[in-house]
Write a structure and sequence with these properties.
The structure is a single chain. The chain is mainly beta. The protein has a single domain, classed as Hypothetical Protein Pfu-838710-001 (Beta Barrel), CATH 2.40.320. It has three helices and nine strands, in the order βββββαβββαβα. Strands 1-5-4-3-2-6-7-8 form an eight-stranded antiparallel β-barrel. A hairpin with a 2-residue loop joins β6 and β7. This is CYTH domain-containing protein. It comes from Gimesia panareensis. InterPro entries: CYTH-like_dom_sf.
Length: about 160
């Protein structure tokens, strides 16, 4: 993809697998529950984020990777009623606990997939690919899987 679709933003993200034995105590970290429904026949995702006193609802379109770590996306924020209306559309659901972990004063997301024998993946978003290139992941991160499609959330829900 050579140009970014109108109204989209570039999501720049790296992802890593982890050595679960080295993870910090997740019970001590801030957590949000993320419920994603990947709608059939397209690249739309319906998302509910619950954490603290706030719940957010979004409809997202991902347009496909333009590099190993970059992808244009568009988010539309929804009301609870709009979310409920769209939630009846056919699709596959993935639920994750997303813990926020600070490493060198930078937030990383530790995602624990519910119902996938505690599959864990760490991710971090960046403002630029140059910033992403120099990122040092936390010591519990092992193999980087940023460019591997089998570790994208939409693929995890299928397997």
């Amino acid at each position: 993809m050579t140009s970014r679709p109108k109204y989209s933003q570039l999501e720049i993200e790296r992802r890593w697998l982890v050595d679960k034995r080295l993870l910090p105590d997740l019970a001590l970290l801030p957590v949000r529950m993320i419920t994603d429904k990947y709608l059939d026949s397209g690249r739309l995702r319906l998302r509910k984020i619950a954490g603290g006193d706030e719940v957010q609802y979004k409809l997202c379109k991902k347009y496909g990777k333009c590099s190993e770590i970059s992808e244009p996306i568009t988010n539309l924020y929804l009301s609870a009623e709009e979310y409920e209306l769209l939630s009846v559309l056919p699709g596959k659901t993935l639920v994750r606990q997303r813990f926020t972990y600070l490493f060198q004063d930078v937030p990383f997301s530790i995602n624990v997939v519910v119902g996938k024998s505690a599959f864990v993946i760490v991710e971090r978003e960046f403002a630029s690919e140059a910033e992403a290139d120099v990122c040092e992941p936390p010591p519990f991160c092992t193999e980087e899987v940023s460019g591997r499609v089998e570790y994208e959330a939409v693929r995890l829900v299928e397997n």
